[in-house]
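User: For a benchmark we're assembling, each entry needs the component sequences followed by a predicted structure for the full assembly. Here are entry 17's components. Please fill in the structure.
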Amino acid sequence: MNRILTALAALSLPIAAISPASAHTTLRSSSPASGSVLMQAPPQLSLTFLEPARLTSLVLVTASGERKLAFAPTGIALKFTTMRPRLERGRNEVRWTALSQDGHVIEGSIIIVLRAPA
Amino acid sequence: MLGLLSAILKGLGYAAAFSAAGTVLARTTLRAGPHSIPGANGLIRTAGIGLAISAVLMAAIYVARLGGDLDAAMIQAMVLSPLGAALGLQLGGGLLIAAVPARSSAMLGAIAIILAFGLIGHAPTRGLLSAATVTMHVTAAAWWLGGLWLLVLADRLPDGRLAAWLGAFSRQAIWLVVLLVPAGTVTAALLLEFHPDLARTYDRGLLAKAVLTLGLLALAAINRLVLTPRIAWDAAAIRKLRWTVRTEICLFACIFAVTAWLTTWQSPHAAVHGDHDVQVVGPVTIVNPWAPAMPGRLGTSAGYMVILNNQASDDRLLSASSHWAEHVSLHVSTRDGDISRMSDLDALPVPAHGQAEFAQGHNHLMFTGLYAPFVVGDVVPVTLQFERAGQVQVMLHVKPLADVGTGTHTH
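Assistant: Structure for entry 17:
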């Protein structure tokens, strides 16, 4: 039996290693939309999924570092909102992680650029 | 890395769950008493403990992959979700089976372990019918694997006893195949919404499982039709039987590996990605629009793409603009001896039914006054203004500078 278990472990390694991490793109939209360039920091930020999901982590990455963002609701929902995300001048990357209904960890990020008023 | 670990653990978890639950099921239907096959209780206990450990580790990996913080959102996702219920059933079922492998209550543990497969995954989330078919499929497959383990263990018994178990196993296995194959086929058909497409990786994975299952069925047929009738008088048949039973177990291991890969990384409805990113098909077609990520805080970058003109007359790209930059211009690089010079291009002609290219070392879009640097993975919206085709929106995908693709180097 040990030999078979070893064989199983050995088999699962290469097969897992060669596979691409194909993304399950389940974000329908965000507000502000990813790629948008804003003159003013938005008062709130929301993510809308294609199917109900459980958002578990929202992190803002800027030139000055990483910061966790609080969001509501907790639990399963289509749309999650974070109030006063306090985006910074320049590039703002909002990284999200969620659990999909079929038990997959899904993740992605949206980019919002904040520029100085012209 | 966590994804890889999760897939390996999933595969080992399948092996433990099917071995634990399946051996209990097979022992019950074969009416083998708790002590009539030596080693069976030990095998059930080991598999049950292995399953419980894998369920706890899986939960830990999920927490880490989902962000790592045990806050309200995480606890709700891990406890109050079908995933939490499935991991709980596997943990509870594994521990129960390991605690009392010889008692009839081990059957409760086996049922809990099998029910977990009907709670979470691609099939159960599609609906009640696919949840039912996948549970039947898992039950039959687990029973089959459990029966194989019992045959491996019964091989240690004195001569003659193995033949009795083998006969009983062969008779019951027919019914299990009748359950396994249709349940698996219906589950696959529901998952693929009756539109199999072998261009999709997921569908190829399911095909691999089907081929491995055919291998299992072929070996089972050899066992039943050729080897089993002979084992009473042919010692070579017993040796061959040992080999086929162990090969069947190895095929099960392959099926678990394919399934772990499918359920970790693939989705039944993932789009088919070609090698080329073809955007916008109309009067003009834009192929592979991309921009290199620029190191540091340089406020400039370049953009590349191939423009195909589908019109019967010549067209010209007049200008480009993007919200991400103060200015986007059309540039041309010219070589003067060893010196490369850049100058503005008034317009880029695109001949009728021909093409024009923005490529490294040649023409390119020049972004100046970027509001944010281009980082790998960014998608930058750009508007192209053509003389005849009008405005065309494209998305540039930011890739590493070294990812040259079809570009040419200039030294």
